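Attaching the record inline, Q. Sequence:
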Amino acid sequence: MWLGIIENSILTLIGFVLLIWGAALLVDGAVSMAKRAGISNLIIGLTLVAFGTSAPELAASLNAALNGLGDIACGNIVGSNIANLGLVMGASAILMPIVIKRNTAIWEIPFVIVLSVIFWLMERDLTFDRFDGIILIILFLVFTVYCIIMAREDTDVELDMIELDGIKIQSLTIPRSIFYVAAGIVFLAGGSDFLVKGATGLAINFGVSEAVIAVSIVALGTSLPELITSVIAATKGEGDISIGNILGSNIFNFLIVGGITALVKPFSLSMRIVTFDTPVMLFLTVLLFIIVATGRKVGRIEGVIYLIFYLTYIVLVYVFPEGLFIL
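Structure, as predicted:
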């Protein structure tokens, strides 16, 4: 048994490394080509960078759906969003209290709440079909238009999630850019394959469902880029970048990862995700809105609370592998 656990853990770790490396190569190559073509930073951020930062989650969920592992496909999305709110925001707020901008409080946090409810309603029939995927993609287009309008009006809308500030754009030759993009795609494909195989193997080793592994181990691994980015931003006193990164990641997980995966390969999921994991995700999002609505910043106390919520959730995931059927 221990040999199997070690083998599957190594496969999972290799998968995470390849996913993160592949996403970085894909973004570097694509952004370099886009800059050479004279495309604006905003459009690059809304498309290439946004897609690239969601690439690990997309590759993992899409691979899982294509292999008939719907619980991993959906659990990765929900679990990543929980990790972004509980772990990433909690750790960032502990390092540096986060002041929420007005437009973020009025528009983006409520938008994430609405998306959480829509996603939960789509889950209720235990299936994501192509119609669900189309709705999610349409919502992404609406969000994209909103971001462009806000940017042109030069308001204080939180656009750190899509801007290129702080991103080092390499000046690559065209052949090298193409190589980076091709290598990134290959690494993403290979990494997702290693990850899914390792995750399903660990589920068998530990005697738990794929959903449990997905919302914990897989979700944590695919959320590592957000964790690293937000923690670095927090240590530099850029709390607004942290919250923009977190909210943006959750939005793209819903709309890009969920939408594209459902369009390419409809998938089914288990009841535990509907009745336990997604409500936890919704609760953490609503809690953020309540904190902001009462005029409070996401300070160190709130950060500790979120971190405790996340750690408690992870413990409950394994203590009650079938889920707490609270609905």
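The chain has one domain: 2-319. Residues 155-167 have pLDDT under 50 and may be disordered.

More tomorrow.
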